[in-house]
Amino acid sequence: SGIVWHRRQKSRRCVQLMQSYAVGFTIYDGRSLQTQDQQPCDPFVVVECCGQQYQSVTLEERATLAPWNEQYIWPAVDLHPKEFESAYIEFKVYARNWFTRNYLIGKASLQLSFINKRRHHLYARRWLPLRTEESTETTGMLMVTVFCLKPGELAPSATEQDTAVDDGTEQDGGGDDIETLNTAVLKTTMEALPGKPHNVLINIHRVEELPSSTNPYVTVDFAGKQLKTNVTATNVQQYTFNECLRIPVVTPVYEDTILVKLWHSNWFSPDELLAQGFISFSELRNNSLPPRWFNFYGWDPNEIPDVTAVSSKGREPEANFFKGRMLMSGRVERLEPDEELPGPQSIMAMAIVEPNCTQVALMGDVYMVTGADGRNCKVELCYGSAKQETALVKYDSETLNDKVAEQLSKVVEEEDDGGNPGFEEVVNTFTFSQAEGRLNPMLVLTPDEQASQPFVMINVYTDSLLSKGRRIAYCKQRLSDFSEYDNGNPARPRFFEMQVMPDLARSKSPPSVLMVVERHFTDDMIRHNRKQIKPMIYIVRAYCIMARGIVYEGMREDKEADFFGLRISCAGMASMTEVKRGPRPLWMQALNLRVILCSESIKEPPTVEPITVTLVQAGSVSYTNYDLGKAVAVYTHMRQKDSLGKWERYDLKPQWVKLFGGNYGNQAVGETLVAFELLLWKNRDVPALLPREMWPQPERLFKKNEHFAQLRKATLHFSINGLRDLMPLPSSTYMSSNAVTRPVVTVEVQNFETDEEGRSVKNKVLTFHYKPVVRGGDARVKAESLKSWSCAALGTQCMNFEFLQVGKLNVMIPDRMILQPFIRIRVEQEATRYPLVGQVSDPTFIGESLQSLDHLLPCCWFDGVDLEKPFAEQKRLIEASVREAKMLAKPRDKFMEMTELERQAESKQRKEELGEEEAAVVSHLFRKDEERKEAVNSTAVPRELIDNAGNKRPLRLSRSELNMQKEVSFEAPPGEIVKEIGAEHSRKPVDGKLENSTAYPFVHDFWYKNVPLLRNHDIINKDDENIDWNYQPGKVFGYVKCAYKLVDGWEDAAEQAREDEMASNQDQPDDDEPEETDLQKLKRSYELDGNLNRFAFDEKKLQQKYKGIESCPSRIRIRIYLVKAVVIYGKGSGFADPFLEFQLGRNIHVSMRNMCQYETNAPEFYRVEERDVELPEDGRLEVRVLDMDSLGLRDTLIGSTTIDLEDRWHSPTWGVKNFKGIVPVENRSLFTSEYPGKNRGSLEMWVEMIESTKASDVKPSVLARPPDAELELRFVIWGTSGVRTVSGDYTNVKIGGTLTCKEYHGEHPAVQTTDVHFNCNDGNAVFNWRFVYPRIKMPTKSCIVKIDLYHYELLGDTFIGSMDLDLKKYCEKVATENDALIIGPEDLKFVAPDPGDGGEEGKEIEQEEVGSVRMTMYVMTSIEASGRRAGIGREEPNEDPQLIAPMEGRDWGTYLATWGFSLDFSLWKKLIPIMCAVLLSMIIFFAGIVAMKQLGLI
After folding, report:
1. From the CA atom positions of the chain, what is the Rg in Å?
2. 3-state DSSP call for residue 1071?
3. How far apart are CA 1326 and CA 1321, in angstroms?
4. Which residues, in sequence order, are bridge partners of residue 89?
């Protein structure tokens, strides 16, 4: 069920040696957050990932919806690749408590590797259910966006991060109904989420054979929950758990890895992780895991104290130390939809039937150990924890070669062929007698199922002066690899290939052990003597063809390639090829190693030691060779005669094998193409056993049964557009300037031809010199002059040159793609010459580019392709042949020898082919006269117009001729036409750079892409999105723009030149050119664009294409559309202050520092810049994203991207989209020279170009932010009904409204309240009140309005109930369509808060309805609102609608009634104001009389 176990080692973490992953996330909203007392809370989110932590802001008084809308990026999460597979990002939502611990509402987790495997490495706007470890109930929902990037991967664009992808698992239940307000009401309780409930059941039965004094327990992690077994076991080596760890989940789940860990419990220190394993949830759901033993293998800390340091620069070392085993099983139980989902729990496991076991006795005999350094040696045989070892023997003072030296010397004296038998390596050997090497039977009980069986391990230990009993090598084998013990019939020994310990990886030859291992059902037997073998002389022949992809630590890439050789070692003998210059050395040598091997007789194949293939760097300064990397191959088949006395045929089938080197032998340093052969020395002169010819042979000499590949004639057509960004040359005495002034380009094809003596023929060369004028042109004519200019690039001033030249070269190319023929494009500065002195300096090497030809072999070279058949009929065959050839050219981790069954099948096929050939010869000798085919068939159709199937072939006529048989297709229905037009006329996004796009919606046809000029570097992938050669300092020395093709056969240069001249003199438009015939298509390269073929290889057409006024106007308007960016970079706070700048061509530099966007990692620019340029001089556009320094000292470069505008201008595909205004949006990676190869973010942008004279007629494409419209929200509160009484039998009803929206900038407060309806005893209150919220800027992340119901009192209002309205979708609709929405009046219900006891555990809490409010909502744009103004409450302007102040609940009687006065004034209530006014007037009158009297006025 997809379980993989890994032993974990206590070791110091070397973070700087791990890989850095980028993890970014956006927290949008939380919904229906369930607290312990079911009351509103102050929630915040804590995000944790691999030691990183982020905490959001704390919101206050939230329950139904908590809008955070926060974004963060961790640019460097350092993990080992194995750790990455089990790493998670976890979101925890807490409720803040002031005086106690914060309450965990729930948490959710996502697996990083699961995110990374998704499209765009992204989960976008995903609702995650929140749960606690103790319960399966959903306690809330959290909407997030998360992305995870491996080093160099493209960051998802800001648009992709903010766009939800519907994959059938979206849980947003809000719906899209905007005709009613009821859908906007957020629920306070969580409903059951759509999904299928399951129980993940992991049964831990028992553990055995653990290290001594272990306190074991097991934990299982999945879906954010962790369960563990009991921890009562102490100081045990085996323990029975019989526990079932049950984890409930509801699909869909966003992770797939069930993590099972075995721990050792410590009392006073952290627990130690012994082992961990991964189980795939998806596989376990489809197939249950039956009871099975899982074996733990790790590393001995005494041997490898720091595994991380070993694995940091390459592969992780193989686990080689047995740590124990565990019996476990598991399954996924699907529950019924209405069945209650139990909580996570550890329960007792059900009784099981344990795997069947068989008693096995393992025994062995060791003959010899070779290649082990030390004084003494012993061999250990292990099966699980059971062990047996040999006696300790001393090294042989006389090697096996010395023992047969006399025999070997006689043979050498007789030989006079001058051959190289190889040189003897100093290799230690240890010979074991039968008594010393015999391993007694080791009785074990092993499971019958192979997957449950531990490995059989063979270990080699040696003693030296500095160490004693040290394990130096090991070998892991399966029990089924060994034969049954046959009493009286000794088994034949064989060599076992040993893996050296990591710290011994630099040893020249790994040890090997010659031994026999057998198995028997009992140890009660009398063992026979071991088989006697004797040394004999053999030849191990290695066919060393070539190497590729050489890269190693400390390799210099600023000079020409080094020289390399290949050394083959076996059985103490070694031989080395000649050294050849890289980066792709071609040796083509067969090395014969005269070795001493042991065998029973000459008719039996010998016991062959493993063959070591070592890549050697030839010494330069110290004149000593340096071993870069090695591979170990096992080849055991010896060529023999068949039953008819004929030697069996040997077909040369080389394989690409990876070479590993470095300090620990785990770093890939290259690949080599090798094959092997084994035969007896005495048969070396037999003609049938002579070395096979590796060199491809020309057609006149090629024999399919004898030669590996055929050399075929081909014509290389090469078209060079120019050189770009050539770096300055190193200083020289003979140069006044360091700038390149006289570049020379040489093109050569790797030559596979040999002369009569078998030596490689010198490569043919095609040379191009830069000339300021086209051939035969006039420098005064602009279209005939070739430009050179300088510009800023690659961190300095670089030179650029136009060439626009075409050449051809007759070459011989092998027809086997496994040889991967290539061309070498070499650029040099021409040698300095003076008139009288002559040449005073050699040409100065600038750089070179190796480009593969394997994908450009002519179509007719593939098997089964017929020149007589139409191209369309054979297209699938050609594509299949190309795919098959590419598969053969892929490298393998180790050499794979053919099995015996494969050899038998090959022999059978060869006999059948031979029979067919003999039958063809016989039929040729006795053939009858063929019937002459009729010129026409029965329907009077000529034979030439009939294909093989008997069908009529269509006439192929030139476009200039009239074709009367042209078929007229039916018109599509109008709806389909409209749909197609809509699809074609929309702007689509492209993942990555446009120049690297090879899939829909844009397949690039940038024929002359910039290909970097490198040094000491092999072929590169020109469409690799993970590397930008513009930001590889010290490696790139310029670029070449070229195109090429191969055509079958040689073309006569003089005759072809005359034909080209005649064709060019005919003034024939391109549109009238005849189409390419099927024969021409079959004879040229398959992967070649027909449009390119029209002009690229005709010099005049090429110059017309790039210099003609129609195709390249004098001035071109460049329109740069800058949309958004994602910044994987941060200051100390984690956020940048990004802004843009760009360099266009030679002189245009634009900085947008004044448009800086502060404190964001996802800036939105929405900026269009237009400039006029000249091509090709101003064809380089570099856009940079910088982080503004607050002190203004020095802004920090976040990342850059570079675009070649010339490629786009001359691309037909891009030109069509540019004309239609639908150029795709590119999501371009950002890189820097300071951190080469590290993705620093991404930038959304596109470029349009148009002739400057026509720019005024073509408007720029619309690039605008999502409508920044301002909206106004209005709510009219008409009244309430059914309001619960609070104070006795009445309620003073009051309504409050609170707007939560970060984009609200209105003048009215966000909290607004109505007036009070006093003494409402029936729950029906009247208000006629208006809430107004103007100036809500769109787009908005969230827009929530909370409507509260209160009981009014002088000392403070009493909260009765509330509701939350999510109005984001209503606002988005109005902002998009600019049409006002009027919804209502509607009755919306208030819900009372829970009293705080939380209800009974396990039961759902029902919310009490405490009344309803009748209201109407108005959503309109600010422009429309200004024409329909309305005041807050009942203030003026009181229109649309006009609100009349109600009388109910607002008279003195109702007000006084709230103070205990229950007076009923009946009809007098209208006279009360008059009586009060009269009384007040009388009081004032009498007060005035008294005052005047006191003053003496009366």
Report:
1. 42
2. helix
3. 13
4. 110
Higher pLDDT, residue 1467 or 840? 840
Spatial contact of 1324 and 1363, defined as CB atoms under 8 Å apart: no
d(CA 125, CA 69): 11
Say whether pLDDT at 778 is over 70.
yes
Q: Can you give the pLDDT at residue 624?
A: 62
State whether residue 248 is helix, strand or coil.
strand
Residue 850 near residue 1012, CB atoms below 8 Å: no
Structure-token pair, residue 1282? 């059914």
Omega prior to 1385 cis, within 30 of 0: yes
Chain CA centroid to CA 408, Å = 56
1227 vs 155: CA distance, rounded Å: 8
Element housing 1320 (H / E) = strand 1317-1320
Q: What integer best gives the mean pLDDT of the chain?
A: 83
Tokens 């555990």 sit at which residue?
1401
pLDDT, tens digit, 9 for 90 and up, residues 738-753: 889 999 999 999 888 8
Whether the CB-CB separation of 1043 and 1085 falls below 8 Å is answered with no
| Stretch 1105-1130: mean pLDDT | 88
Q: Are the C-beta atoms of residues 554 and 562 closer than 8 Å to each other?
A: no
For residues 910 and 927, what is the distance between their CA atoms, to the nearest angstrom?
Answer: 25
> How would you class 756 by CB atoms within 10 Å of its CB: exposed for 0-12, middle for 13-18, buried for 19 or more?
exposed
Q: Which residues pair with 894 in a beta bridge?
A: none
254 contact partners, CB below 8 Å, separation of at least 6: 110, 111, 114, 123, 126, 128
Region class of 1052: left (phi > 0), else alpha (psi between -120 and 50), else beta: beta
Alpha helices in 1224-1283 (DSSP H): none
- Cα distances from 204 to residues 86, 133, 236, 347, 1127, in angstroms, run 20, 20, 16, 11, 46
**pLDDT tens digits along 1304-1351:** 999 999 999 999 998 888 889 999 999 999 999 988 888 889 999 999
Spatial distance between the Cα atoms of 33 and 532, rounded to a whole number of angstroms: 80
CA distances from residue 307 to 20, 504, 509, 1327 in whole angstroms, order as listed: 18, 15, 23, 75
Say which residues have a Cβ less than 8 Å from residue 61's Cβ, sequence separation at least 6: 40, 41, 42
Q: How far is CA 17 from the centre of its chain?
A: 20
Task: Give yes or no for a contact between 802 and 769, defined as CB atoms under 8 angstroms apart.
Answer: no
1112 pLDDT above the threshold of 90: no
**Predicted local confidence at residue 342, as pLDDT:** 84
Q: Which two tokens stand for residue 250?
A: 């509801």
Task: Say how far apart CA 1411 and CA 1286 lie, in whole Å.
Answer: 12
- Name the least confident of 176-180, 359-363, 542-546: 176-180
H or E segment at 742?
Answer: none
Q: Report the pLDDT value the prediction gives residue 853, as an integer from 0 to 100.
A: 86
Strand, coil or helix: 103:
strand
Please spell the DSSP secondary structure of 1448-1477, one letter per residue: TT-SHHHHHHTTT-----GGGGGTHHHHHH
Compute the distance between CA of residue 1421 and CA of residue 879 in angstroms, rounded to an integer. 59
DSSP state of 558: S
The torsion angles phi and psi of 912, rounded to 5 degrees, stand at -65, -40
Mean pLDDT of 238-256: 89
Residue type at 123 in one-letter notation: Y
**Nearest-angstrom CA–CA distance, 211 and 230:** 19
User: DSSP string spanning 1221-1237?
Assistant: T-PPEEEEE-B-SSSTT
Q: Per-residue DSSP letters for 470-495?
A: EEEEEEEE-GGGSEEP-TTSPPPPEE
Label residue 458 by pLDDT band (50, 70, 90).
very high
CA angle, 392 then 397 then 402, to 5°: 130
658 band by pLDDT with thresholds 50, 70 and 90:
very high
What pLDDT is attached to residue 11? 37
Q: Is 652 in contact with 692 (CB distance < 8 Å)?
A: yes
CA separation for the pair 541, 650 (Å, rounded): 12
User: How many whole angstroms separate alpha carbon 385 and alpha carbon 208?
Assistant: 10
